[in-house]
Design brief:
The protein is α/β, with parallel strands linked by helices and 382 residues long. It is 32% helix and 17% strand. It has 13 helices and 17 strands.
Length: 382
């Protein structure tokens, strides 16, 4: 792979794939870290007299109605604070690049091309070729999207010389340190809402780590399989998933840990309960991690997910306590996943840990499998 940091790219038109899929609430960006981390690459390219055409997806687009709430214009408004750039409103019409004096452009959500027929997410090579016609070079700086072979993350590499941007290089360097870790005990903490799409990841990490703490919503399914009452909390109902959860519990009993203290809301009253006191109508909103003894001798930690609805004050105690305990430890702590990083930043732990990754699924897959699908595709085609 070629790295932007080791090349002299000047006076070129550069297609730059970033990942600006940031969380938004009440029409405001709540965590801009993904955007901020790409600014070094963008400014470097501009300083070297290149024209920069930025591609990114934003949210899920499955219908015309979805486009209304998934426009990158909100990111454009944010970027205007740092860059002199223009906004291209149609990802299938980049003519403005040739008809403007601007040197920087943000193109509307690449996933708009998935309606009415999926093009971007099916790696439509005609689409990738169209975008490539407007540039001389392709720079991929969207680490959080490198587990997907899409037109804008991989397909373009068939048609243009391709380089890894500063953000991707930094991610790979830091996560390689985690993957090649020789220090033990190694602890993985997995949280988040759903277990269905994370079982393979959990199993892969169980093979690498010494201890695994399960928390958040995904713990509910494990508890259900073990015969506990979790009330009306979110659990998987998929028979295959439940069977695989049972196998993991049986195969890795000595590695799996969890806290039995939870927060529920009864009649508008927030209360903390032990697992045995959960009632049929209860919904678990927060898992209060009381596992300091499990973390006492840990050397390295990989954290993905939160212990509950951390963005709501009443249900942030579990996540906040977990982060506090990790901060107090002497362990190297790597954090991956959108919610994980957002919780770290919003709860005041931004500078407390070894590394905050910009990736969610991409970070999980890289740590688990030591590879990313889009990177493998680029290697084969460049």
């Amino acid at each position: 792979m070629k790295y932007l940091s080791k090349e002299d790219i000047t006076n070129k038109k550069v297609l730059l794939r970033c990942d600006f899929n940031v969380p938004v609430k009440d029409n405001k960006i709540t965590d801009s870290s993904k955007i901020d981390k790409s600014l070094d690459t963008i400014k470097y390219l501009l300083d070297n007299k290149n024209t920069v055409i930025i591609l990114s997806h934003f949210g899920r687009v499955k219908s015309e109605e979805d486009k209304e709430n998934n426009s990158l214009r909100i990111v454009y408004e944010y970027l205007k604070n740092y860059l002199d750039l223009d906004f291209i409103t149609d990802p299938t019409n980049l003519e403005k690049v040739n008809n403007s004096e601007k040197k920087c452009f943000l193109v509307e959500n690449t996933r708009f091309t998935d309606v009415p027929v999926k093009r971007e997410s099916k790696n439509d090579l005609e689409l990738a070729k169209y975008w490539s016609n407007y540039a001389d070079v392709f720079v991929i700086d969207a680490f959080a999207s490198l587990h997907r072979i899409h037109s804008s993350t991989a397909g373009i590499s068939k048609y243009l010389p391709t380089y890894l941007g500063f953000l991707v290089e930094k991610e790979l360097t830091n996560l390689d340190n985690l993957i090649n870790n020789k220090e033990h005990p190694f602890l993985v903490i997995m949280g988040g809402a759903k277990v269905d799409d994370k079982l393979n990841i959990i199993e892969g990490l169980l093979k690498k780590c010494d201890k695994l703490i399960l928390t958040g919503g995904l713990l509910n399914t494990f508890l259900k399989v073990m015969g506990y009452n979790v009330g009306k909390s979110l659990v998987s109902t998929d028979a295959e998933v439940l069977n695989n959860v049972k196998k993991l519990i049986n195969n890795y009993t000595d590695k799996i840990y969890y806290s039995t203290k939870f927060v529920v809301n009864r009649d508008d009253t927030v209360i903390a309960l032990e697992l045995d006191d959960i009632e049929d109508n209860d919904i678990i909103y927060d898992n209060l991690i009381e596992l300091s003894d499990v973390m006492s001798d840990i050397k390295v930690v990989f954290l993905n997910g939160t212990s509950g609805k951390y963005e709501i004050d009443e249900y942030s105690r579990g996540t906040e306590k977990l982060l506090y305990d990790l901060k107090k430890s002497n362990a190297k702590v790597y954090v991956g996943g959108g919610d994980s990083v957002s919780s770290v930043i919003n709860l005041g732990f931004k500078d407390a840990f070894t590394y905050l990754s910009s990736g969610g699924g991409a970070t999980l897959e890289y740590v688990c499998d030591d590879k990313l699908d889009a990177l493998e595709y680029i290697k084969e085609n460049n």
